[in-house]
Amino acid sequence: MTSKIDDFMKISRPFLALAVLVFLLPISGYSFSGNDFLQQNIQHNIDARYASGEKKHAGFFTRLEIGFILPQYSSTFNQHYSAVNPLDGSTLVDTVINIKAKSNPAYGGYLGISFPLTYLGGKAALGLSVGVKYIMCTYDLGNVTPYSSSVSPVSIKSSIATTQENVPISLDVKFGNDANTDRNTRYCFTYGMGVDAGMYTAVNTLSSSSSSTTGSHTYDAVMSVNPFMKAEVGIFMGMLFKVRATYDFGTIKLADDNNQYQPTETQHTTFKNTSRFELSLILLPLSATWHRADWWKH
Fold this sequence. Notes:
Layout: H1 2-32, H2 36-58, E1 65-84, E2 91-102, E3 107-119, E4 124-144, E5 156-176, H3 177-180, E6 187-207, E7 213-218, E8 222-236, E9 240-248, E10 252-262, E11 265-284
Antiparallel strand pairs: 1-2, 1-3, 1-11, 3-4, 4-5, 5-6, 6-7, 6-8, 8-9, 9-11, 10-11
Helix pairs in contact: 1-2
């Protein structure tokens, strides 16, 4: 767990520094102004205009997001089988299977909302995003050679199907129309960091050379919390459309299973995501109701 946090902090330092810089820009502007009173009044008018626009035109669900997710995950499958002679305790079999696999083309859905915490001038804001997502994936492990309960090797085809329900929470720095909810601001950009809490279930399906299913095993559901980073770009075309890229840090264990077929036979299986990248198309349906600021205020 410590290594995950260390890796996350090393990568996120530049983004944290940029976020602090963006946050301080409106404040530092006062010290360079020859007329602090005028500067403060301009900033006050900007904040008041966007605050009133937020209340009048947008409402609580102004940044409601609906999305379609295309995941790309890298995984490792590890299975350790051992069997001993019940008479003298000598080892009959002690074998390990290690397989690396990528997720097949898959899909998922996203529903979320974000809230502005503070405005950083007229076209930037610091916000909190909360969402839920559901993703289904399959992985082909190829032909594996596990051992049956009679301690004899058999060659079969193995695949794993997973489902996941996640609640990502992030702190975002937003620029453009996603910050000021202004339809006359055409583009937006967002970057953010947060944690992704999820529950994962996996099913391992085994089939013979004739492709007929010979058995399946459902692993116990597991839960995991991992840090992640995201970046978005968007364009307003009647409604706001965004493309989002997210990356989760660390390893996520999707399955951790111990089986004891007989008193002398044990099998330990783990299945982990070692890399998690997601590309999403996000739509904000209520952005069509956003206010439209006068053109000379841009």
